Amino acid sequence: MQYGVPRDIMLAVYNRENGRCFYCDVVVSLAARKWLQSNHPRARVLNAATFDHIIPRSRGGADSVDNGVCACVSCNEARGDRPAVDFLYERAQRAVA
């Protein structure tokens, strides 16, 4: 998913989140994302910035600033195609358990 999002949209989302994962607040890197795309498209660079769709593409979500957050690879993969609100709720439940 992160590979198909236009660069200007990814950059706007990255800047809005101050270079941090929306879900876990870890610092993410656009440079790591670029390296990953250029050299090893199948590799997992955990601090690479990814575009995570709030409404997943599989459910009709668009590649837009309003429908995306900046996420680390781990959170993006853990969320899958579940709605963002469900993922956040599950993370909060685990934090208090």
UniProtKB/TrEMBL annotation:
Coiled-coil region list: none
Domain HNH nuclease positions: 31-77
One GO molecular-function entry: zinc ion binding
Keywords for this protein: Endonuclease, Hydrolase, Nuclease
InterPro entries: HNH, HNH_nuc, NA-targeting_endonuclease
Keyword Nuclease: yes
Family matches, as CDD domains: HNHc (cd00085)
Classification via Gene3D superfamilies: 1.10.30.50
Keyword field contains Hydrolase: yes
SMART domains, per database record: HNHc
Descriptive protein name: HNH endonuclease
Source organism (scientific name): Bradyrhizobium brasilense
